[in-house]
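Anyone able to model this chain together with pyridoxal-5'-phosphate?
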Amino acid sequence: MAMQYISTRGAAPVLGFGEAMMTGLARDGGLYVPETVPVLSKAEIAALAGASYEEVAFRVMRPYLGGFFGDDEFRGLIAKAYQGFHHAARAPMVQLGSNHFLLELFHGPTLAFKDFAMQLIGQMMQAALAKTGERITIVGATSGDTGSAAMEAFRGLENVDVFILFPHGRVSEVQRRQMTTPSEANCHALAIDGDFDDAQARVKDMFNDFAFRDGVRLAGVNSINWARVLAQVVYYFYAGTALGAPHREVSFTVPTGNFGDIFAGYIAKRMGLPIDKLVIATNQNDILDRALKSGDYRTNGVRPSISPSMDIQVSSNFERALFDAYGRDGAAVAQLMGEMKSGGFKISQGAIESLRGTFASGRCDEDETLAVIARHWKTTGELLCPHSAVGVKVAEEHVGGAPMVTLATAHPAKFPDAVQRATGIRPGLPPHMADLFDRPERVTRVPNDLVALQAVVRERIAH
Ligand SMILES: *Cc1c(COP(=O)(O)O)cnc(C)c1O
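re: yes, here you go
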């Protein structure tokens, strides 16, 4: 039977892969997850070692498609998605310490790991729309990197308008310019008066307004979109098999905000990759670390940090982990998410034990982040972006018998101020974006108000 997708809140239509990709958020407010997770055999996993990134991508993702794309077509989409990366290995690994490795996920066109999923989703959505001749409106919220990756992936595509909401004044200048400088008419950068959680909440509101949603054919590319999570599962297998899986266990530490990237690691584990520890690394916005340690998932306000892509309190994808931890009880998850409106909820004893069986966690404050960047520049010559530094610090507290892989989520040049503060070195942009600061910007300032935002979207797509 073809792979089907169900909502974490249990009350939305069951969909195939193509529909789940185009829909984004489920109509009951939940997130789509595969009804069953395919498991790769030990032999299949062993055979991934030494294969190209593209080949690993094909073999890991294919079982999830339910035949939505033919094999040759899917191989072609993968090839196009990763041809714009600036490293032949796509996701090269360097060694930081005796049992500690850094997986560099920042060689894509916008210098953050988001490119891995977004470039592929751009190709897949375009191919899907070409089949039906439909037109869609993509609306996404970003703490910085999702927006730039989405603009880059969708700029100039035929049947798509892309609107990106980012918190005004709270993204780095490189991030902002990556969103505001594409000149294509289908790209719309919106600076919202609010923080990332406000932006994300307004996007969710748009999806929950069904008349608006259907009227503009809304599609989502935030990490609530299953296809994005899926594309990120690939590099866990790629790195894990390079370090000896399935014959030995491997651990991963993931700088975490919206829980999309680390959830992909959880899926890799369920697919059979022998992952020992899966470590959540947070900055001073540490709701996930607190929740795992105390069992209480409670917001306490976002404090802007030098790792802004993780300045998040409401981690959307955590809902997917809760769904499994609550034995896939959609009604229970819906109730918890309802309690979020009053600031948080207590995770049940069974669920917290289940989560602790899979995930560990740690936090890294601002001074520690700078100190880690400085220390690694001196001792390993690796220039870490502040997000990757958060990961490295927490990973160092968790290195054990299995090799530890820390995900380096962005290029240091994307956050030059923090890197310069820590090391005195101002990392330069790679050649393909050397003129970023000379390109004209185009941005619309918008209030934190659903009706006003909807009006902007309607007006822009009418042209
Ligand atoms: C998005 C992002 C993160 C957080 O990833 P999630 O999937 O939201 O947990 C971490 N670092 C960087 C650089 C990012 O862009």
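Residues 112, 114, 145, 223, 255-261, 309-310, 387, 409-410 surround pyridoxal-5'-phosphate (CB under 6 Å).
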